[in-house]
Amino acid sequence: MMKSRLFYIMVLLTGRLAMNEGNKYSCSNYTQVDVDGVRCWMEVVNEQFKTENLSTIIKSVEKLERVLENTALNETTSIIVERLVAHIFRAEGHFTGLNISASQERVTSDGDRVANTTVKVHLPKELLKTNENNTIIFCMITSPEKYGQLGILDGRIVGLAVSKKRVLGLHDKVNISMPLQRPTLESQADKQPSCQFFNFSTNKFYQDGCTTEWKRDEGRVVCSCDHLTYFAVLMVSPSISESDREILSYITLIGCSLSLFFLVVTIVLYATQRGAGTDISLKVHINLSVALILLNLHFLPSQQAAALSSSGPCIYVAVLLHYSLLATFTWTAIEGFHLYLLLVRVFNIYVRRYLLKLSLVGWGFPAVIVIVIAIIDKDTYSRVTLHPSKTNGTAVEMCYLSNDVMKLVTTVGLFALVFVFNLGMLAVTMRRLKSLRTEQTSREKGRARRDTCTVLGITCLLGITWGIIFFSFGQLTTPGLYLFCVLNSLQGFFIFLWFCVFKWKTEDSQPGSDTHYTNSRSA
After folding, report:
1. How large is the greatest C-alpha to C-alpha distance in the chain, in angstroms?
2. Fewest Cβ atoms nearer than 10 Å: which of 34, 76, 130, 359?
3. Contact 338, 515 (CB under 8 A)
4. Concatenated DSSP letters for 269-325?
5. In what order do the strands lie in the sheet with 152-162?
6. How much is the pTM?
7. Which stretches make up the G-protein coupled receptors family 2 profile domain (predicted)?
8. Can you tell me the distance from the alpha carbon of 222 to that of 89, in angstroms, rounded to the nearest whole number?
9. How confident is the model over 187-230, as pLDDT tens digits?
């Protein structure tokens, strides 16, 4: 009897050890796991939230994501381990979208109400193709102790994924709704919610592809994102206030409309006046005016095009807006080059078909960039979210270049080069004006006023005012944005004034040809 009892105890101990070894194996091998393996990994991560540092936890959460994506299940399953909530939905047949509701005690996707709902998720039918049988993974992790130090609302992150599929660029966005309790707002009165996603490669949060919708008098914040990953609501300090943002929008709208009107008037005056096409400098100004007309024509309706359900108009506006912006930068660079010939290479420089060559560069170079981008990534011209508006009450979108790398290289990079070159040309102009002033009699009246007007006009033609955005940071953010919006939205109006003064001074000049000569008198 004693021997049989000892044998039974040994069998139980052996079985328990084998089970523990099995759990250990399933926790370390996440290529293909079952429900027990998922629960094992969730228990490991849950314990690490109590004992480990944040960097170790982040690595374990990344492994847990792979475990969930590789879970082999035949039916929808929910698993809850203290602060971790997972829901694995088995999609079969025609997928029409999915709504998930979750709290710390329960999670469901069958439409049942969940008491004390913490997170609501809507996944669009665009997520899966027809008859595509994949597993959709939802994971909610709540840890105010660890994630709270990152500024995450309630210390909660929400992970969404589709097994064996990378989801990017959704037209119908994924919506994630979370509670925004009033005590949180009162304790952080200077903060605003911002929907962001976590990049495991850089261990940083980013806003790209996500918009934030919220109102102070409502108790929820809605994140709309065009991709799947781990999301969180961060409480951040707004760069500018909501009132300033609204004022800046009106300034931009009114200024761009006025610029568009006066630029059209400039072109009409140029086309109707006799002898208008005789001066090369004037022709360069007119080409810059045409580029600005195209820019304003496609910038003003960009938000309306982004709001349309059809993507065709938005793609058209995005392509033309990017092209016209690049053309504007290119023609401001040509203005600088032309000024260089007038002020530095002064004495009779002969250039055959000068204006034709300038036009090939001014209009052809931007076209080449746009075509190359379209070939590399045909979907990059689409709806994008305006970065300054990602933390306000409404989601603001426009049609433009969505690829951040291409945007940085082709827009910011190109303008940085143009800005540095034209800033140098502005310095040369001021130095030249100073030398001319010393050569002339000091009794000449109004010389300083005319020099000031000349410098301001050339500053506008060279696009120097666009560079204000480089210096809008810290305490200079709000004043810099006001100055940037006022000067650049009215750039067309300033060019119109310059054109009027230019024509008044050159109306008696002799006719010329499309061959460019420069001399000290014209400079």
Report:
1. 128
2. 130
3. no
4. HHHHSTTTTS-HHHHHHHHHHHHHHHHHHHHTTHHHHHHSS-SHHHHHHHHHHHHHH
5. 77-81, 84-90, 135-142, 152-162, 230-236, 192-199, 204-206
6. 0.61
7. 248-503
8. 22
9. 455 677 889 998 888 888 888 888 888 776 677 889 989 889 89
**Dist. CA 112–CA 26, nearest whole Å:** 32
Distances (CA, A) of 248 to 25, 472, 482, 485: 59, 14, 7, 7
* 8 A C-beta contact, residue 240 and residue 388: yes
pLDDT for position 121: 93
Taking a C-beta distance cutoff of 8 angstroms, is the pair 226, 382 a contact? no
Distance CA(477)–CA(4), nearest Å, equals: 82
Kindly give, in sequence order, each residue whose CB lies less than 8 Å from that of residue 337, ignoring residues fewer than 6 positions away: none
Residue type, 179: P
pLDDT in tens, 163-176: 878 888 888 889 99
- CATH no. for 28-236: 2.60.220.50
DSSP assignment of 334-392 equals HHHHHHHHHHTS-S---BTTHHHHHHHHHHHHHHHHHHHHHHH-TT-EEEEE-GGGTTS
Q: Which residue has the tokens 């096409």?
A: 277
CATH of 242-506, picked from 1.20.120.450, 2.60.40.10, 1.20.1070.10, 2.40.40.20, is: 1.20.1070.10
**pLDDT tens, residue by residue, 354-375:** 888 899 999 999 999 999 998 9
Give the residue with greater pLDDT, 14 vs 173. 173
DSSP H or E run through 68: helix 54-69
Residue 4's pLDDT is 38
Question: Tokens at residue 517, please?
Answer: 């000569």
Looking at residue 412, the DSSP 8-state letter turns out to be I
* 515 and 351 Cβ atoms separated by less than 8 Å: yes
8 Å CB contact between 316 and 297: no
| Contact in structure between 85 and 118 (CB atoms under 8 Å) | no
Structure tokens at 314: 């938005």
* Structure tokens given for 115: 């008491």
Phi and psi angles of residue 441, each rounded to the nearest 5 degrees, phi first: -70, 145
Q: Per-domain residue ranges for the chain? A: 28-236, 242-506
Helix (H) or strand (E) holding 87: strand 84-90
* pLDDT over 70 percentage in the chain: 75
Q: Which tokens is 154 given?
A: 């309630």
Beta strand pairing call for 204-206 and 210-214:
unpaired
138 phi and psi, to 5 degrees?
-120, 130
28-236 and 242-506 agree in CATH topology: no
Is residue 23 a contact partner of residue 38, using CB atoms and an 8 Å limit? no
**In this structure, what are the phi and psi dihedrals at residue 265, rounded to the nearest 5 degrees?**
-60, -40
Kindly tell me the burial class for residue 453, based on how many C-beta atoms sit within 10 Å of its own C-beta (0-12, 13-18, 19 or more).
Answer: middle
| Integer Cα distance of 370 and 372 in angstroms | 6
Hey, what are 410's tokens? Answer: 């082709």
